[in-house]
Records
---
Amino acid sequence: MSTRKKIPMRKCVVTGEMKPKKEMVRIVRSKEGDVSIDLTGKKSGRGAYVSLDREAILAAQKKDALARHLEAKIEPGLYEDLLDLVQKEKL
């Protein structure tokens, strides 16, 4: 009997699809209201997951999905950082 390790799944706030946590990036809003990219997945605060996909990130920016989900203002630089992250993942 083989015990397969359960893969943690998360739902993308933009596309609504469930994906393995490793294929997502977590954005977190701290108690102070600061929004940042949480690469460890362990920062405390309200989190939202977005697919590590250029289209999903651009859609999130266009729809303002992260701002609504996290109830915080999202700086344009955050989306640029996310897009940079996607580029690095593809290399």
---
Amino acid sequence: MSDLKLAVVESHFADIIWNNEPISSGQLAILCERELCWKRTTTYTVLKKLCERGIFQNRDGVVSSLLTRDEFYGIQGEKLVEQAFDGSLPAFIAAFTKRKALTQEEIEEIRHMIDSAGEV
């Protein structure tokens, strides 16, 4: 799981898997031909790369995720905060809210998450 980044087209491919898993590799190739205009070999090549990265698995011709969409993007968020804000979530939130105002609903949701985090 060393390289957990997805290019734009890989992200679309991952969404196809997450939205349809478990899915046979043959059915995945058909969906990718329809949605991405890929040949079967392209689908299998990209699938192999993402399996090697530890995001998906292909066992006996059935493709499923090793990381859910939420887990994957949660890891991405953690890396962003670590790399760009020295691991400081408050610094990230301060930078984010300087450029985009939060709605009252978002503020309440964040307050609820903070309150719930203290209950663990």
